[in-house]
């Protein structure tokens, strides 16, 4: 079922609080999700943008032609669906301000847990004088793009963050301000004698791959798999900067539904236990299954997880052997052999 915020987003057109776009106009839809129904008379060309691979595939299945990143400018208006990250929501507004013509309309919708109310207040403080309307347990906010947007874009656009002096990340990415504590624990247990082909499942901005290359300098190749297109772009830059001589490949992929096509000697991962808004440990379980299918016979999995997540039965179902390497107050490192 689609989020109710999708209905909230289009509601001002239904009530005629916002005029329907002209038929020949071009509109941008940032954070687009499948399941929306355009109001009667909404015939503008709609360019859907979605960075998260599973949702991107759902949009494709809905016979849309989504993009993983924003392209072009001169749009007549924009729709923005809020997510759970404040930095991402602000950056989407900045993208709309950069790419929509002066005088165009931008609509932003989300539930209270998406931070739509603080965002509305911020847009008001910035002088955009937004209007708003509550509907379907959410709020939709809209404003007109001013002539000069440079200061607004500078304030709202996601900022580049440097981690440990050598990793480039961006606000809104997972653990963008520092290496995740679980990943750090796993990094401390990476094998120094590895010399084969490895895969990093859920690679994020590339921390674990860089750490594996440093721990095992004879590593032949690392393939990085990540569902966030933007995180993967940062991983490309971080691997190029930190491991310029390492052979790497990058795959924007939903591993639960798009299996790796090759076989590996080692898979490392810090799997997510949520998808979108919902806490969903089955995502990690699906990645364990994907890792088992991607390993050669005798290949190894090294993963980190929150201590309370019951991944051991999943490992037992898909691997010949498995066990625990170590744990601390919050995380555990698990191993398994194919």
Model description:
- The chain is α/β, with parallel strands linked by helices and 338 residues long.
- The chain folds into two domains: 153 residues, Vaccinia Virus protein VP39 (Rossmann fold, 3-Layer(aba) Sandwich); 178 residues, Rossmann fold, CATH 3.40.50.150.
- 30% of the residues lie in helices and 30% in strands.
- It has ten helices and 17 strands.
- It has a seven-stranded mixed β-sheet, with helices on both faces. A six-stranded mixed β-sheet has the order 2-1-3-4-6-5, with helices on both faces.
- A hairpin with a 3-residue loop joins strand 16 and strand 17.
- Helix 3 runs antiparallel to helix 5 and helix 6 runs parallel beside helix 7.
- The longest helix is centred in the first third of the chain and has 14 residues.
- It is elongated and about 65 Å long.
- About 1% of the residues have low confidence.
SSE topology sketch:
Blueprint: H1 4-14, E1 26-30, E2 45-49, H2 53-61, E3 75-81, H3 86-99, E4 100-111, H4 116-125, E5 131-135, E6 138-144, H5 150-156, E7 160-163, E8 167-170, H6 181-187, E9 197-201, H7 207-215, E10 221-226, H8 229-242, E11 247-252, E12 264-269, E13 274-275, E14 278-279, H9 282-294, E15 295-306, H10 312-318, E16 321-327, E17 331-337
Parallel strand pairs: 1-2, 1-3, 3-4, 9-10, 9-12, 10-11, 12-15
Antiparallel strand pairs: 4-6, 5-6, 7-8, 13-14, 15-17, 16-17
Helix pairs in contact: 3-5, 6-7
């Amino acid at each position: 079922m689609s989020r109710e915020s999708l209905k909230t987003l289009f509601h001002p057109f239904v009530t005629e609080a916002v005029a329907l776009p002209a038929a020949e106009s071009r509109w941008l839809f940032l954070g687009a999700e499948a399941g929306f129904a355009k109001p009667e008379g909404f015939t503008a060309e709609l360019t859907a943008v979605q960075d998260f691979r599973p949702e991107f595939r759902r949009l494709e299945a809905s016979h849309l032609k989504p993009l993983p990143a924003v392209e072009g400018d001169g749009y007549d208006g924009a729709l923005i669906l809020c997510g759970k990250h404040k930095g991402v929501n602000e950056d989407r507004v900045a993208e709309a301000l950069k790419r929509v013509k002066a005088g165009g309309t931008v609509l932003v919708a989300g539930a209270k847990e998406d931070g739509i109310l603080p965002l509305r207040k911020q847009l008001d403080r910035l002088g955009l004088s937004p209007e708003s309307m509550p509907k379907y347990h959410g709020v939709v906010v809209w404003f007109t793009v001013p002539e000069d947007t440079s200061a607004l874009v500078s304030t709202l656009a996601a900022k580049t963050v440097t981690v440990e002096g050598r990793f480039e990340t961006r606000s809104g990415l997972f653990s963008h301000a520092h290496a995740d504590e679980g990943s750090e624990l796993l990094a401390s247990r990476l094998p120094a004698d590895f010399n084969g082909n490895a895969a990093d499942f859920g690679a994020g901005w590339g921390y674990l791959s860089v750490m594996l290359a440093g721990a095992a300098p004879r590593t032949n190749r690392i393939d990085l798999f990540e569902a966030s297109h933007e995180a993967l772009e940062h991983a490309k830059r971080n691997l190029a900067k930190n491991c310029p001589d390492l052979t790497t490949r990058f795959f924007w992929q939903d591993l639960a539904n798009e299996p790796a096509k090759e076989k590996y000697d080692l898979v490392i991962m810090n799997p997510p236990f949520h998808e979108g808004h919902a806490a969903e440990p089955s995502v990690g379980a699906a990645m364990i299954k994907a890792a088992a299918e991607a390993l050669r016979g005798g290949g190894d999995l090294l993963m980190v997880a929150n201590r309370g997540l019951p991944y051991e039965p999943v490992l037992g179902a898909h691997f010949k052997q498995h066990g625990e390497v170590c744990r601390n107050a919050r995380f555990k490192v698990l191993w398994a052999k194919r």
